[in-house]
Amino acid sequence: MKRAPCPPKAVRELTAKLDSLSQEHGKRQLAAREKQMSQRYHKIKFFERRKLERRIRDDLQYVLFFPPAEKYVSVIKDPGELEGEARAKLEAERKRLRGMAWARRAEEAMVNEADEGAGLLGPLPDPLDHDAPEAIAEEQDDFFLQDTASEADSDAPAPMPWLPPSSARLSQRLRRPLMWPAGLLPTHLMTARPMAGASMRPCAIRRPHSTAHVMALCQCPIARGLGPEKGVGMGAPGGSAAEAVADVSNEQEDVVAAGGC
């Protein structure tokens, strides 16, 4: 059966696709051939490269370390243009000069190796140089000037850092007498209640249960019923702590004898 003819647009599209595939196939074939040739001649190229590097290095050393007292023979001149005898003579002369150049290079290398640490030690003073002591004196003066400047900077007052209070200062603060203001006696130290068969008093003092209570009573004149102007305590200027404790003990005995708390 005969097929129907393709439209021109489809023909153009298929032709362009065929051309692109042909180009892609040619590129892949070229890459495969390059890889094959590279693997085949890799060893030969490696050895030739090493030979050329060695030859260039020898020619460069020949130019750099050529003996200055000898007549220079060009290393670029091709001896193939000369005849047999002249060519042999040129090769022999080059060989002799190359040997002298290599000997000079080895000698300079030994000198440089011997002087390797000379730069670290610094230049030695010349015994005929009369300005050397003055230079040393100037260096010493500069050194002392730097020390003076550093001392001046160190004399400047440094800012004082904040420090917490020491244990001695804290203990000194805790040892200060505790003075209760008038009318602010703690309730656990003073209780007001009426007493039958006895004269009414504004308050009755309980028996203190510890030395701390006694000391608190000694420091507060209101608890003793004496008033601020007659109080005698550790913080008051009128008496000592022993007298205050004795007064409180006497008052406690009076309260107990009267039938108080």
Automatic annotation (TrEMBL):
Species this chain originates from: Apatococcus fuscideae
Family under the similarity heading: Belongs to the EFG1 family.
BP GO terms, sorted: maturation of SSU-rRNA from tricistronic rRNA transcript (SSU-rRNA, 5.8S rRNA, LSU-rRNA)
Protein name (database record): rRNA-processing protein EFG1
Main location group: nucleus
Keywords carried by this UniProt record: Coiled coil, Nucleus, rRNA processing
Keyword tRNA processing: no
Gene Ontology cellular-component terms listed: nucleolus; preribosome, small subunit precursor
InterPro entries: Efg1, EFG1_rRNA-proc
Annotated compartments: Nucleus, Nucleolus
